[in-house]
Amino acid sequence: MDLEKGESGQHCYFRQDEPLPFEMRGILGSGGFGQVDRYMGLIMSPVADMDLSTYLARADTAIHRELRTFFGCLARALEFLHEQSIRHKDIKPSNILVHSGNVLYTDFGLAFDFTDKDGSTTVSMVNVMTPRYCAPEVANYEPRNTSSDIWSLGVVFLEMMAVLKGRTVEYIYNFLREHGSRQAFVRTNPIGTNALVTELKETGNPTDNAALVWVQDMVTLQQQLRPTAASLMGSIT
């Protein structure tokens, strides 16, 4: 088995003689897992340069072109996961690796395989969540499904957009504390979030504003109104 870089401008992919459910660019990373027949295997490579959280903290205008490519890669990888009946359940920058200019989802410790289920919806108690990135239905212990992954990725996209617009990630949460409900989470401050998106649209390169429209759709409070990963990819491409 090995990890290779695809064509120029494309992202890393995992290759093995026997197919894995996650054989897709942008998915496999350190701590990911795959399954062949009934056997579980831990995939320990690549060793990433950093996670996306660190990448965004260090970002300057020199990496903006590269950062713009991450939107499509992350959306396509999530589309593939959902096609394979997998909910990640813990999408956040620290669970996204940046490796040689490529991004990969990692840490599938909470992932839910609904291959043999009636659908992706679960209603059981949530044992672990990341408050900043989890969807409102997760925080409220309500039924959740693949749209909850979409929400989490939407918050990640918002942080990426803040950086592209010359802001920092912490600028987002400081802004939310001063607007709307004055609560620092996107899920608890929709008015503040909309005000932030409006401000970001008026800042920096206007050609980046399409991603802010995706973000608004992805962090809609009503689950059924959020795009699927497939429809998100349709918007991006």
List keywords for this structure.
alpha+beta; Transferase(Phosphotransferase), domain 1; two-stranded antiparallel ribbon; 8 helices; globular
Summed up, the domain count is 1
Q: Main sheet?
A: 3 strands, antiparallel
CATH superfamily: Transferase(Phosphotransferase) domain 1
Strand proportion:
5-15%
What is the average per-residue confidence, as pLDDT, rounded to a whole number? 83
**What structural class do the secondary elements suggest?**
alpha+beta
Please bin the fraction of helical residues: 25-40%
Give the C-level CATH assignment. Answer: Mainly Alpha
Give the N-to-C terminal Cα separation.
Answer: 31 Å
Radius of gyration: 17 Å
> Which sequence of SSEs, written as H and E, runs from N to C?
EEEEEHHEEEEHHHHHH
DSSP, total strands = 9
| Poorly predicted regions | 1-26, 28-42
Could you say what the CATH topology is called?
Transferase(Phosphotransferase), domain 1
Strand order of the largest sheet: 5-7-8
Number of helices: 8
Shape: globular
Provide the CATH architecture. Answer: Orthogonal Bundle
Protein name: Kinase-like protein
GO biological process, one term: mitotic DNA damage checkpoint signaling
Pfam families: Pkinase
Keywords: Kinase, Transferase
